[in-house]
Design goal:
The chain is an all-alpha fold and 143 residues long. Helices cover 77% and strands 0% of the residues. The chain has 6 helices and no strands. It has helices spanning 16-29, 33-45, 49-92, 98-125, 129-132, 136-142. The chain is elongated, with a radius of gyration of 31 Å. The model has no long low-confidence stretch (mean pLDDT 84).
Length: 143
C-alpha cells in the first residue's frame, strides 16, 4: 500500500492586516489557517484563475452597463418631461397687457420659489418619477 504524500511545511511572512483578515476568515469558516492559505494559493496558481477573474470583471461590466442604460432612460424622461412642460406652457399662456404683466411677474417669482421647494421635497423623499413610468411603455411603442 502506498503511503499518502506528506504535506510540505513552509514559513510565510504576512502583513499584519493580511494576517488579521486571514484569521478572521478562518474563524468564520471554522477552518484552520493553513487550509485557507493553501486554498488561496492554489486558487491563485490555478490556470483558470484568469478566466474566473475575467468572468467577475465581465459580470461587473454588465452591471455597470445596465446602470448606464437606466441613467440614459432617466435623463431621456427628464428631458422629454421638461420639453413637454415648456411647450405646454408656451402654447397655452396668452400674452398679458402691461399692467397685468407686472403683477404676473411678481406672482411668477413666488410660484417659482414654491416650485423649487416642492422639487426639493420630491427629490429628497421620492417616489422617483422613473418608478411611476412603466418601462414597458417604450417596448409597446416600438412594436
Amino acid at each position: 500500500m502506498i503511503a499518502p504524500k506528506k504535506k510540505a511545511q513552509m514559513s510565510v511572512y504576512l502583513d499584519p492586516d493580511v494576517m488579521n483578515t486571514l484569521s478572521a476568515y478562518a474563524a468564520r469558516r471554522e477552518q484552520p489557517l493553513s487550509l485557507i492559505a493553501e486554498a488561496a494559493i492554489a486558487s491563485f496558481l490555478s490556470p483558470d484563475a484568469d478566466e474566473r477573474r475575467e468572468a467577475a470583471i465581465g459580470k461587473r461590466l454588465d452591471q455597470v452597463d445596465r446602470r448606464i442604460a437606466r441613467l440614459e432612460r432617466d435623463v431621456e424622461i427628464s428631458v422629454v418631461t421638461m420639453a413637454l412642460f415648456v411647450r405646454f406652457s408656451v402654447t397655452t399662456t396668452p400674452p398679458l397687457p402691461e399692467p397685468a404683466a407686472k403683477a404676473a411677474r411678481a406672482q411668477a417669482g413666488a410660484r417659482y420659489d414654491n416650485f423649487v421647494a416642492a422639487l426639493g421635497r420630491r427629490l429628497s423623499r421620492g417616489p422617483k418619477l422613473r418608478q411611476e413610468i412603466p418601462e414597458d411603455v417604450q417596448e409597446s411603442e416600438r412594436t
